[in-house]
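Before the break, one more example. Copy the sequence into your notebook; we will annotate it together after we see the structure.
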Amino acid sequence: MMRTWQITTVTDAARARIALARLAAAYGVPTLERTRLATALSAHLRQCLTKGGIWVLTLNLAGSPAEEGLLHAVVTPSPEACAAGEPPWEVTVPCPEAAQAAEGGAIADDPAALAEALLGADEDTAVVLDKLTEQEDLVAFHREELHQTNQGVLALHAELDAAGRAQREAFAAERSARNEAESARRRLTFLADASAVLTASLNHEEIVRRLPDLLVPEYASSVDVWLFDQEDDKHRSAPHPAAAVVAARTGRPQYAADHPGNLPGVDDQPPSALDPARPLLCVPLPTRRAPLGVLTLSPPGARWDPDDAVMLIELTRRASIAIDNARRFEHNRDIAETLQRALLTDLPATPGLSLAARYLPATHGLNIGGDWYDAFPQRDGGLITVVGDVTGHGLHAAVMMSQLRTALRAYAVDGDSPGRLLTRLHRFLHHLQPDLYATAVIARFHPDEPTLTWAAAGHPPPVLRQADGSVRVLDAKPGAMLGIPLTQEIDDHTVPVAPGSTLALYTDGLVERRAQGIDPGIGRLATALGGFRSGELDADLGGSADRILHPLLSDSERDDDVCLLLCHLRGDAAS
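Here is what the structure looks like once it is written out:
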């Protein structure tokens, strides 16, 4: 269906608009679409009237009754305008009720029809306004939702910011705690390692030398140890800082600098006149009786961390204990060594027999006081030689050794054999010191006898170099240790000897090594003894003893006493 109107005046345009609105309503065009269509047509027709001329409005309904139709509105200009290139205006809207619109579309010319059309337009406008109000309400609702959402987003952002700050603060606190724990672990590890280094030595001078190596440069830039009773301390020309003197007098750590130290347990003092620009931490070396001295340190940087200062004070306390223990050890060792050397008698001169003895104190540990040797004649012309070792070390062992030596000399007056002498010493020691034991080997030489008589009690076996140069280890069954809670009779053993023979009596410190045992050491001793000629032993028995000791002890720290007694039967034979 198609309808056409010519428009030249405003009245024609109004009638065309009314006709379009009525047809659109008749064909079921929705109110909003109908209002948009009428408004758009009115605006275009107003432009057309402004341009003038004849304009043609064509309405065309396409589509079958069974289908939804389309309403096409086209405004074309007059032929003159088309010649001038004016394009047509057109619009298309759907018509859901096109089959029921057969009689719609006539444009009435009377006022009643125009009024009705005007009221219809107002109704459409009211519907549009209602829709517009609904849209405004919907927009307002969505605007409120958006506002609430924005508020929620802002609140969420605030919460996230707060959570982020809290998380960052937690991370920072955790990092700080981890750093503090690591620093504490590092200090404790250093304190434990440094304490182990200091207590590993029993030489107080070595401990003093180790302190700077431990502390510089991580915890101090310089370290000075002032020990009060050093012999050369009274003659030192360099004075000590005043803070060190205060620390020595009060027994409290002192900090001397041009600023407060704020160190726990440390008193602040003015800067030292010796070096005002250098801060000093002066820590006394405490003992149970009185301070040993003062440790003076300079910081590795501008100042110390308080925790580092606490650690340094604790390390100084441990160093003081180590130095005090080392001095006690050295004092006891000196007494034991002096006593033992005083008890080691000069060897007697015997016709046809040369004697050479060597005693070396231990260089590691307090293993002094147990080893001894002796040689003395009996009334029948025989010569008793003995080497022994008392268990334990220090003064107690040295005193016990002297008692055994005295008892042995007393028993030997009766002319007893080596086995009988050891048996009597065993009873003596068990009665005198039930908790102390000893080992010993005794050899008896007699100028009228071509044999050597010997006996051992828990002691390393003698080594005999015979006149022909061969070496024999006298390992016949020995007795048990002296002093053990056991009744025993120790047997004598004899072996033939001739001029040129040499007997070596010794203690386990010469041959025993912790990693190897005692047998390899005895083999090395036998090899060394067999390497001499009788002429060498005749000429210089003492030098031969030294040449035996050197190779056997060169690979050892000598953590035990060493005794060696060589008994050489002089003669013209050489091998």
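The longest helix spans residues 111-199. The two ends are 155 Å apart (CA to CA). Try to locate both features in your own notes.
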